[in-house]
Write a structure and sequence with these properties.
Keywords: Signal
Number of domains: 1
Number of helices: 4
Helix content: 10-25%
CATH superfamily: PRC-barrel domain
Protein name: PRC-barrel domain-containing protein
Signal peptide: 1-24
Oligomer: single chain
Domain PRC-barrel: 51-113
CATH architecture: Roll
Number of strands: 6
InterPro entries: PRC-brl_dom, PRC_barrel-like_sf
Shape: flat
Amino acid sequence: MKLRIAALLIASSAMGMLSSTAFAQVAGTQPLGVTVEVSTAMIEGWSVKKSILNKPVVNDQGARVGVIHDIIVAPDRSVSFAIIAANQFLGVSHHDVAIPIEQLDFVGGKLVLAGATKDAIKALPEFQYAKMKATPKPRAQFEHH
Protein backbone atom coordinates (compact mmCIF):
# COMPACT_ATOMS: atom_id res chain seq x y z
CA MET A 1 0.00 0.00 0.00
CA LYS A 2 2.89 2.38 0.80
CA LEU A 3 4.37 1.76 -2.63
CA ARG A 4 0.96 2.51 -4.14
CA ILE A 5 0.78 5.85 -2.28
CA ALA A 6 4.21 6.81 -3.59
CA ALA A 7 3.33 5.76 -7.15
CA LEU A 8 0.05 7.66 -7.05
CA LEU A 9 1.75 10.77 -5.67
CA ILE A 10 4.42 10.64 -8.37
CA ALA A 11 1.87 10.17 -11.13
CA SER A 12 -0.45 12.86 -9.84
CA SER A 13 2.31 15.40 -9.24
CA ALA A 14 3.76 14.81 -12.70
CA MET A 15 0.36 15.00 -14.32
CA GLY A 16 -0.56 18.10 -12.37
CA MET A 17 2.36 19.90 -14.00
CA LEU A 18 1.19 19.01 -17.49
CA SER A 19 -1.54 20.70 -19.49
CA SER A 20 -4.62 18.66 -20.38
CA THR A 21 -5.27 20.65 -23.54
CA ALA A 22 -5.50 18.45 -26.64
CA PHE A 23 -3.33 19.35 -29.61
CA ALA A 24 -3.50 18.08 -33.17
CA GLN A 25 -0.46 16.00 -33.99
CA VAL A 26 1.30 17.05 -37.16
CA ALA A 27 3.98 14.85 -38.71
CA GLY A 28 7.45 16.20 -38.01
CA THR A 29 6.47 18.46 -35.12
CA GLN A 30 6.64 18.08 -31.39
CA PRO A 31 3.29 19.16 -29.90
CA LEU A 32 3.13 20.86 -26.53
CA GLY A 33 1.08 19.19 -23.84
CA VAL A 34 0.45 15.50 -23.47
CA THR A 35 -0.55 12.47 -25.48
CA VAL A 36 -4.10 11.18 -25.61
CA GLU A 37 -3.08 8.29 -23.34
CA VAL A 38 -1.62 10.62 -20.71
CA SER A 39 -4.62 12.94 -20.99
CA THR A 40 -6.95 9.98 -20.38
CA ALA A 41 -4.84 8.93 -17.38
CA MET A 42 -5.15 12.45 -15.95
CA ILE A 43 -8.92 12.44 -16.32
CA GLU A 44 -9.16 9.04 -14.64
CA GLY A 45 -6.34 9.84 -12.21
CA TRP A 46 -5.97 10.70 -8.59
CA SER A 47 -5.45 14.19 -7.14
CA VAL A 48 -2.89 14.87 -4.42
CA LYS A 49 -4.63 18.17 -3.69
CA LYS A 50 -8.01 16.52 -3.15
CA SER A 51 -6.79 13.32 -1.49
CA ILE A 52 -3.71 14.27 0.54
CA LEU A 53 -3.02 17.96 1.07
CA ASN A 54 -4.53 19.46 4.23
CA LYS A 55 -5.89 16.06 5.27
CA PRO A 56 -5.43 14.84 8.84
CA VAL A 57 -2.86 12.21 9.72
CA VAL A 58 -3.82 9.75 12.44
CA ASN A 59 -1.89 7.10 14.34
CA ASP A 60 -2.83 3.42 14.42
CA GLN A 61 -5.25 4.12 17.30
CA GLY A 62 -7.08 6.77 15.23
CA ALA A 63 -5.79 9.78 17.20
CA ARG A 64 -5.01 12.82 15.07
CA VAL A 65 -1.27 13.62 15.07
CA GLY A 66 -0.98 16.25 12.32
CA VAL A 67 -2.03 17.51 8.90
CA ILE A 68 -0.33 17.01 5.51
CA HIS A 69 0.91 20.40 4.29
CA ASP A 70 3.13 19.44 1.38
CA ILE A 71 4.62 16.58 -0.60
CA ILE A 72 8.31 16.77 -1.52
CA VAL A 73 9.34 15.44 -4.93
CA ALA A 74 13.06 14.64 -5.10
CA PRO A 75 15.22 15.63 -8.09
CA ASP A 76 14.92 12.05 -9.40
CA ARG A 77 11.12 12.66 -9.53
CA SER A 78 10.35 10.30 -6.67
CA VAL A 79 7.99 11.31 -3.90
CA SER A 80 10.28 11.34 -0.90
CA PHE A 81 8.68 13.13 2.07
CA ALA A 82 5.36 14.34 3.39
CA ILE A 83 5.51 17.62 5.28
CA ILE A 84 3.25 17.31 8.29
CA ALA A 85 2.10 20.21 10.43
CA ALA A 86 2.52 18.95 13.95
CA ASN A 87 0.91 21.96 15.58
CA GLN A 88 -1.70 23.94 13.68
CA PHE A 89 -4.12 26.61 14.86
CA LEU A 90 -6.70 28.17 12.51
CA GLY A 91 -4.87 26.79 9.48
CA VAL A 92 -1.50 28.30 10.44
CA SER A 93 1.27 25.80 11.00
CA HIS A 94 3.65 26.31 13.89
CA HIS A 95 5.88 23.26 13.50
CA ASP A 96 6.26 21.36 10.19
CA VAL A 97 8.19 18.09 10.10
CA ALA A 98 9.36 15.89 7.22
CA ILE A 99 8.19 12.28 7.35
CA PRO A 100 9.48 9.71 4.82
CA ILE A 101 6.59 8.82 2.54
CA GLU A 102 7.20 5.09 3.18
CA GLN A 103 6.04 5.58 6.77
CA LEU A 104 2.55 6.71 5.72
CA ASP A 105 -0.24 4.34 4.75
CA PHE A 106 -3.92 4.49 3.82
CA VAL A 107 -6.03 2.45 6.21
CA GLY A 108 -9.80 2.65 6.12
CA GLY A 109 -9.65 5.78 3.97
CA LYS A 110 -7.38 7.61 6.43
CA LEU A 111 -3.72 8.59 6.29
CA VAL A 112 -2.01 6.63 9.05
CA LEU A 113 1.41 7.17 10.61
CA ALA A 114 1.78 4.07 12.77
CA GLY A 115 3.20 4.59 16.24
CA ALA A 116 3.03 8.39 16.06
CA THR A 117 1.82 10.72 18.79
CA LYS A 118 1.44 14.49 18.77
CA ASP A 119 4.30 14.76 21.25
CA ALA A 120 6.57 12.52 19.14
CA ILE A 121 5.85 14.60 16.02
CA LYS A 122 6.47 17.88 17.89
CA ALA A 123 9.78 16.48 19.19
CA LEU A 124 11.10 16.00 15.62
CA PRO A 125 13.30 18.74 14.15
CA GLU A 126 11.33 21.45 12.42
CA PHE A 127 11.36 21.24 8.62
CA GLN A 128 12.53 24.39 6.84
CA TYR A 129 12.41 24.87 3.09
CA ALA A 130 15.71 25.59 1.36
CA LYS A 131 16.20 29.17 0.32
CA MET A 132 15.21 29.43 -3.35
CA LYS A 133 17.24 31.49 -5.77
CA ALA A 134 15.37 34.50 -7.09
CA THR A 135 15.40 33.04 -10.61
CA PRO A 136 14.90 29.31 -11.27
CA LYS A 137 17.52 27.50 -13.34
CA PRO A 138 16.66 26.63 -16.96
CA ARG A 139 15.83 22.97 -17.62
CA ALA A 140 18.97 22.60 -19.77
CA GLN A 141 21.18 23.23 -16.72
CA PHE A 142 19.88 20.12 -14.90
CA GLU A 143 21.95 16.96 -15.32
CA HIS A 144 19.06 14.68 -16.31
CA HIS A 145 17.95 16.84 -19.29
